[in-house]
């Protein structure tokens, strides 16, 4: 991909969609009736995933196909130049089964630097906290660009097709920002002064190109989403600190698990938790009721529309329009071989 070295330019939330192309009470609580996560209503399941996002988690469900050696990817530290760093992240989206996260800091003293998170051994990346972003922007960085990858394996699970796509013999599909990506950005910027949050830009690099996205803090849905996720984050932290929860996490190997898997196991194994912990888990699910039906419909539609389409598919225009209703704008720059 030919990435131009230019100042970070977040997409303006004020632009119209047509103008853009782009980590849980002590009273007795009955167990929830859920044999697996899919038995939940669609809205509760989606919001359950987002709950784990309140601590800044970006899930990256990746795997290496059986019988196929994990692809070799250049070490992130190998590049510091902006364009070379973006090229490396593009290669990682093709070859690594996991999401990668990187920060590009444009420095007040001039120039810039990459801070890469090599997460091939983990299932998710942890964003810096809001306070860490505040420190960066006040002390050293003029702007920060947050870039993470969406791996090819998210859409191609068949080893043969995956291999062909990596060789350019099968079409690459666009994997735009998910609702989880967007809500992570929202929760991150919400505690920051506007002058600081405006200096953070967000991108997803996938095999087809790069997506820039921005959130509008003045959109009514911004407060609804961030209030719900921050409340879930507070309850989640309380649950995670409990001894029985820590035992369950260790027993089922959930420490580095994808949030979808964590939620599924919690619902299946909740009887192994104390009544107090089950009450907290119920509270987490109940927070979702604060999101109204129109917003729920938007979230469901978003997850449907980002299933994996060619970059020029009309469904992606519809996705942009749907995101715009919740104050999110996106711009897509297709990959161009050098």
Largest sheet: 6 strands, mixed
Mind telling me the C-alpha Rg? Answer: 20 Å
The tally of domains stands at: 1
Helix content: 25-40%
How many E-type strands?
8
Tally the helices: what do you get?
A: 12
Q: How do the SSEs run, as a string of H and E? A: HEHEEEHEHHHEEHHHHHHE
Report how far apart the termini are: 7 Å
Query: Are there runs of 5+ residues with pLDDT below 50, and where?
Result: 1-74, 120-124
| Mean pLDDT figure | 74
Helix vs. strand class: alpha+beta
Strand order of the largest sheet: 3-2-5-6-7-8
Which band does the percent of strand residues land in? Answer: 5-15%
**Overall geometric form:** globular
